[in-house]
């Protein structure tokens, strides 16, 4: 969004107010949580497992920055709970290691942002579900300096129901995407360790990752949504005397512009803000083991 013209000269406009609570507000939240898992070794090269976990996120109080709430009481929100299920396999096929996992997380009273007037507040929005599949592979041939690593994940998220909050407007509806849940992520890395003399090795490495489109807040706000993007990194490492490592590298090698966070209130306050990842940058690192 463009800057206002003329720019404001006061932090709080004339006639405005800033409300800060001058006393503590407390509440107590409790939940029974735990996890269980079982594993079985089918063969020398195949292990399987299943697991279950029950977790929760504490409730709390919203804070109001531009006006006191009715009754001068902060708006509370309750705890969020999630039941997670996973089944997977770990395989060692010669020089190839492969891990596979499928999972599902069922959320109850998920904490999402609603709006009360122009103020964004956390409320317990309803039920949601995330399910997905992950795979990781590593290939390190015996007697060779080659190192290949790769991974991928597929996510499917669903907002199953929305709890109505009197006096507040939901910013999300069933069928909308949950924040920070890209449908696909993939990564790979390739490196090779060269012997360059007694007690010296040099390892060049390149890695890259692709992330599909994602949103940062509930509801559809195209101005702050990120399309799919690829990021690459490169490095070279010198190891000597089996103790010292000197590494230099370039992060975001192709100088890709991509968002890591965003927020907006176009319909009420008329703003959209974006936070970008760092541009291309380099580093040098020296480390030692004793």
Provide structural commentary.
The protein is mainly β and 290 residues long. The chain has one domain: Beta Barrel (Maltoporin, Chain A). The protein is 0% helix and 55% strand. Strands 1, 2, 5, 6, 9, 10, 12, 13, 14, 15, 16 and 19 form a 12-stranded antiparallel beta sheet that branches. A 3-stranded antiparallel beta sheet has the order 8-7-11, with no helix packed on it. The model is unreliable at 7-16 (pLDDT under 50).
The secondary-structure class comes to mainly beta
What best-fitting shape do the alpha-carbon axes yield? globular
What is the distance, rounded to the nearest whole angstrom, between the alpha carbons of the first and last residues?
A: 53 Å
The number of distinct β-strands equals 19
Helix content: under 10%
What is the CATH fold-level name? Maltoporin, Chain A
Secondary structure layout plus pairing:
Elements: E1 34-41, E2 46-57, E3 60-61, E4 76-77, E5 80-93, E6 96-108, E7 111-116, E8 119-124, E9 126-139, E10 146-162, E11 169-170, E12 184-192, E13 194-195, E14 200-211, E15 229-240, E16 244-251, E17 259-265, E18 271-276, E19 281-288
Antiparallel strand pairs: 1-2, 2-5, 3-4, 5-6, 6-9, 7-8, 7-11, 9-10, 10-12, 12-14, 13-14, 14-15, 15-16, 16-19, 17-18
């Amino acid at each position: 969004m463009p800057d206002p013209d003329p720019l404001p000269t006061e932090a709080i406009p004339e006639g405005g107010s800033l409300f800060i609570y001058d006393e503590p507000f407390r509440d107590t939240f409790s939940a029974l949580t735990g996890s269980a898992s079982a594993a079985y070794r089918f063969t020398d090269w195949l292990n399987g497992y299943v697991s279950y976990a029950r977790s929760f996120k504490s409730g709390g109080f919203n804070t109001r920055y531009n006006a006191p709430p009715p009754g001068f009481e902060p708006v509370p929100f309750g705890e969020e709970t999630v039941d997670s299920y996973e089944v997977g396999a770990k395989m060692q096929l010669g020089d190839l290691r492969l891990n596979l996992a499928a999972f599902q997380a069922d959320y109850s009273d998920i904490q999402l942002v609603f709006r009360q007037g122009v103020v964004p507040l956390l409320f317990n929005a309803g039920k949601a579900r995330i399910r997905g599949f992950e795979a990781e592979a590593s290939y390190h041939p015996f007697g060779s300096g080659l190192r290949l690593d790769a991974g991928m994940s597929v996510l499917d998220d669903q907002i199953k129901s929305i709890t109505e909050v009197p006096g507040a407007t939901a910013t999300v509806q069933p069928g909308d995407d949950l924040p920070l849940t890209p449908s696909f992520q993939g990564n790979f890395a390739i490196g090779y360790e060269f012997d360059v003399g007694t007690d010296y090795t040099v390892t060049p490495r390149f890695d890259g990752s692709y992330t599909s489109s994602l949103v940062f807040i509930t509801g559809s706000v195209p101005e702050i949504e990120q399309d799919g993007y690829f990021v690459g990194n490169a490095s070279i490492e010198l190891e000597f005397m089996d103790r010292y490592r000197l590494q230099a590298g370039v992060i975001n090698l192709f100088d890709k512009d991509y968002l890591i966070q965003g927020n907006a209130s176009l319909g009420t306050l008329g703003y959209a803000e974006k936070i970008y990842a760092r541009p291309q940058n380099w580093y040098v690192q020296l480390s030692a083991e004793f």
